[in-house]
């Protein structure tokens, strides 16, 4: 963590690595590096491992996070060797988690919100290949989940036209860093805060994701049941909704009015009321899957209507007493977008009419499901 003049000054101010003194002992043992019963392991490189470790330790369901090195061929590298770029490794963190409380997909989504995935030259103030962002996947399933998540992030437009350059590579090895690096944020809170502030990391995250990208996972409820139906694609519990100012930049005026102010778009003058193509409809803000064209029908109202949701767990019903009548409002679970209303006057087999606003939805054609990370729904259209 030493590349610019500003950073050297920061190291001098905080004491630097040569002056680090552990406030409490933490020696990584061979047993610490093995998943225990009921645990799974994930490996992420997100720049400075002090920050990556501290961020993941906030996630409910994460049991322990260990700072170290991964991705290179050097056996048992030292911090000094790796900082000099001599080992081929990246600074990385081994994350051991309880899959009953937090999924691997959740961790990947959380990871995106704590790095700059468009930076190919390092992360924030730390420059060089040893600080590049990488997801090291343990097995084909983790690789599939990570690749799908990366595609969704690219399609989201969060970073505009910038490509997502974070590598996704099969995991090979991990070597723990020296003991004084473990739990560094907890052992050296003042020095850590100075370093983190000076790195520019949190300023970037706030600008990109809003006030608190970490809060979504830290405050999430690990006991929330998994939605019924096909396994939900994202967003997981770690989805961090952008603030109003950021949403106004991303959404059209009509999309913002509908999703954030419970507005209603004009009938027959919207994108999907007469769309007959095969595919799924996802939330315009979060991308969470909501409805399928298989359940869409012409209700004669001028708005897209469905007999049932694709993912019932992604739908929230609320009582709506506006307009001098009682109706049932439909909102998305993770983005909390206003979608429309549901009425008990639909056709069989459910008898329900989910009357939605096109402005709250984004249509993903069946040909693009795999490309955009919704491949598990392709079987619906075979």
Automatic annotation (TrEMBL):
InterPro entries: Met_Sox_Rdtase_MsrA_dom (IPR002569), Met_Sox_Rdtase_MsrA_sf (IPR036509), Met_Sox_Rdtase_MsrB_dom (IPR002579), Mss4-like_sf (IPR011057). It is an enzyme of class 1 (oxidoreductase). Pfam families: PMSR (PF01625), SelR (PF01641). Residues 224-237 have a biased composition (Pro residues). The active site is at residues 48, 355. PANTHER family: PEPTIDE METHIONINE SULFOXIDE REDUCTASE (PTHR43774), PEPTIDE METHIONINE SULFOXIDE REDUCTASE MSRA 2 (PTHR43774:SF1). HAMAP family: MsrA (MF_01401), MsrB (MF_01400). This is Multifunctional fusion protein. It comes from Solidesulfovibrio carbinoliphilus subsp. oakridgensis. The lineage of its organism: Bacteria, Pseudomonadati, Thermodesulfobacteriota, Desulfovibrionia, Desulfovibrionales. The gene is msrA.
């Amino acid at each position: 963590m030493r590349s610019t003049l500003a950073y050297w000054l920061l190291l001098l101010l905080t004491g630097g690595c040569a002056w680090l003194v552990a406030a409490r002992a933490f020696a990584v043992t061979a047993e610490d590096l093995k998943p225990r019963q009921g645990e799974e392991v994930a490996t992420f490189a997100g720049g400075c491992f002090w920050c990556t470790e501290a961020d993941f330790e906030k996630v409910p369901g994460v049991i322990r996070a260990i700072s170290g090195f991964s991705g290179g061929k050097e056996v048992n590298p030292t911090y000094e060797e790796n900082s000099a770029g001599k080992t081929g490794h990246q600074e990385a963190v081994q994350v051991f988690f309880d899959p009953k409380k937090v999924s691997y997909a959740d961790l990947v989504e959380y990871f995106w919100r704590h790095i700059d995935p468009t930076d190919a030259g390092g992360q924030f103030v730390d420059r060089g290949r040893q600080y590049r962002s990488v997801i090291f996947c343990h097995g084909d399933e983790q690789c599939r989940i990570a690749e799908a998540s990366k595609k969704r992030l690219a399609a989201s437009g969060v970073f505009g036209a910038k490509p997502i350059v974070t590598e996704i590579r099969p995991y090979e090895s991990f070597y723990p860093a020296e003991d004084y690096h473990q739990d560094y944020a907890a052992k050296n809170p003042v020095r850590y805060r100075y370093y983190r502030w000076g790195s520019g990391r949190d300023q970037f995250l706030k600008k990109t994701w809003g006030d608190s990208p970490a809060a979504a996972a830290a405050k999430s409820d690990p006991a929330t049941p998994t939605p019924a139906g096909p396994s939900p694609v994202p967003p997981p519990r770690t989805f961090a909704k952008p603030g109003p100012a950021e949403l106004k930049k991303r959404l059209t005026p009509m999309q913002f009015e509908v999703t954030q102010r419970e507005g209603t778009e004009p009938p027959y003058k919207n994108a999907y009321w007469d769309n007959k193509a095969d595919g799924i409809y996802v939330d315009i803000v979060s991308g969470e899957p909501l409805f399928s064209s298989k359940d869409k029908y012409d209700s004669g109202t001028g708005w897209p209507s469905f007999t049932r949701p694709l993912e019932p767990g992604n739908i929230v019903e609320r009582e709506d007493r506006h307009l001098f009548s009682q109706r049932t409002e439909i909102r998305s679970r993770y983005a909390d977008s206003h979608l429309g209303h549901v009425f008990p006057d639909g056709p069989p087999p459910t008898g329900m009419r989910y009357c939605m606003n096109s402005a709250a939805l984004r249509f993903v054609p069946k040909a693009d499901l795999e490309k955009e990370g919704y491949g598990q729904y392709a079987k619906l259209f075979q």
